[in-house]
């Protein structure tokens, strides 16, 4: 297993696109976070102190953009092997297919968690710097508070799960375009449906079952009773999606010729 | 010994085989023969229709509720027509003059900018009947309006001082005059009202749109409306050609029954009439655009078309096919243009099928589930705004596919191109409601998303303040304006792609 891990890490490390994509995870997350925290204002509230805006969630909005880079990263880790034919050498060197996929999942998740940590901490720092200028001075962002820490850790874990889901889907679909379209459809089109359906019951159902909207419930730090799904159970739904994706990928990977 | 003569090989194919039609044929063959691409195209149509159906059949249906028919104006659309009307019959040509005091809202509130007080000549006291009216408004000066949809701006009004108004009839033509002091008069405008009888009703009116309250905070929006009420006084009222008595009526029944304060009324004291009213005289604009909503599936159905557009060029690089393509047709710009033409044609047809089916299947259901369907125009596919929305949706999907092709040609990377396109077109649906109004409207104006404005079918009247929220699918620009922004994106990026293709080795 150590050999397999080392091989996967070498493959990942020596492709320039890996570093570009991991950089994009942070850069995109920070950029959107800066836009949302920079444009929000306390005008709507009776007074700045009574503005019960969820500042932690607001600062972490950038994940909606950053997760696209994570998805591309997870998909490419698998599909580019098929595109270039490296998969043959990989399976010749490590014939245990379960081991190959496990090693890939470990390396990709590890890299994503590292990049995600940078992205999340950076976003919170951006929020901490920008928000007081917009009138949200009473509640500086701090990781010492329980809910804020849960939101930060949960968001990093969420990104790791996105990478696993993408890897699993890519193992099933094998083709880059098909896999990335499927993953982006799950991540963006499902939550977008909430805006398109009119019925509240349906909106709630989609919120509870779509990977992105359920998983990002972990970012909420205020008004938790009003959420369609709780923070940790939401992340569990995302975990179920990732698990199902990896399981399907592993099954197909074992049963099918490369 | 003589060397044997060798006849050099000559192709027996007729010359001039590398024209543009041949290029189109080549690209069409490529597109047609990859089975996955045909399935992707089909997926685009199916997803468009399914999402539209989901959005139609998941809407809350209200079984109960008032289903009485609303008044319909001379233009055939639903109108609001409710005001206290102090009037007298006017036979043939004539005029009405009065000095109108500034409007005051109920219980000391500021009146709505489009509250109205003035003079009206109307066919009868029936709601929805043709009319011409000149009025002062708190926010928009003197206006001459007729038959609900026509509006002409006159001069400005001093907010604190009374203003003189006059409306004259000459056959079908109505002319409005205004004056600050009652002696020097200026013309405010003329309008035609067709089909009026010889004897009409000339009189005084006040009206006001509802007060709207918009609460918009991160992730949640609430728009509320409640009837408003305004009061104005009319002095020195004279009717040239009138018949003396002043019957009082309320056109269309009042709307402000539940409001506190002075009820809707008209009282006279030593020649000065004081009118208080709560209804409005304006075209009715529903807050939901049903035809637009029936086409909502295109916002998701574009995802497979984006993938198809990107693959149409990146697959050539991956398979090395681009070398054959460019050998067969060394003029590279034309290759990309041919690709764009074929792709646009195919996705346009697919989009047209998807949009037509979406409209036909979802629209009746959506309308039926409205609280009172009669308030929503009963539209058919052949109506001009609907036709524009349906064909516009097909054009918009074709433009999105071409944009994806151009991006794929520039980046030569399937994953990045697909991701960029999907994020740019679908993520705003999730996030726009969270951005402040200004930022959200700029996104809708300038990004490729602007193209979706073409799906809007309800007319915008300048003299009606409509609440325009991004999350309700209301775009700040007109339908054609929005579509041309998207097409400009596609054309510019295609130009960049052609330039890059020429400059760089394949």
TrEMBL record, chain A:
Can the keyword Transmembrane helix be found in this entry's annotation? yes
Q: Which UniProt keywords apply?
A: Membrane, Transmembrane, Transmembrane helix
Indicate whether Membrane appears among the record's keywords: yes
Ranges annotated as spanning the membrane? 58-78, 107-131, 151-173, 180-198, 232-253
Kindly provide the name given to this protein in its UniProt entry: ABC transporter
Automatic annotation (TrEMBL), chain B:
Keyword Transmembrane helix: yes or no? yes
Kindly indicate whether the keyword Ion transport belongs to this entry: no
The UniProt keywords, alphabetically, are: Membrane, Transmembrane, Transmembrane helix
Membrane-crossing segments per the record:
37-57, 295-315, 336-361, 386-407, 414-435, 482-501
The name under which this protein is listed is: ABC transporter permease
- Write down the species: Streptomyces camponoticapitis
